[in-house]
Design brief:
The protein is mainly alpha-helical. It has a domain at 2-73. The protein contains 6 helices and 2 strands. It has helices at 2-6, 34-42, 53-61, 74-90, 94-98, 104-120; strands at residues 24-26, 46-48. It has a two-stranded parallel ribbon with strand order 1-2. It is extended. The two termini are 37 Å apart. The mean pLDDT is 83.
Length: 122
Amino acid sequence: MIEVLGRIRVPRPEGGRPRTRPDHISGDKAYSSRRNRSYLRRRQIKHTIPEPKDQQANRKRRGSKGARPAGFDSEICKRRNEAERTIDRLKDSRAVATRYDKRAYVLRDTVTIAAIRSWLRP
């Protein structure tokens, strides 16, 4: 996760330095490590990452030394699930799933066509 966040560059429409910090990040249980959470807190990035059962049990077992539970908003998590299902629907197209396209504009057009086909599908 850390390497991916370091490459984010979102240009500003009015000019100036590109944004390098997202407003909010949603992830699945695989990204709930202490290192990822501390990195996001250090960069002041809000996040919604569910805590796995074993981490919850370890925290509760430690009692007062186990720290507070990680913040979690189930509504934001539901929105992440919608986005993942949409991407899975796009991957029904073999060209999108395999990503053989070498150029970004060709991949963008392939995804656009897959989205149109998905939208028109009965």
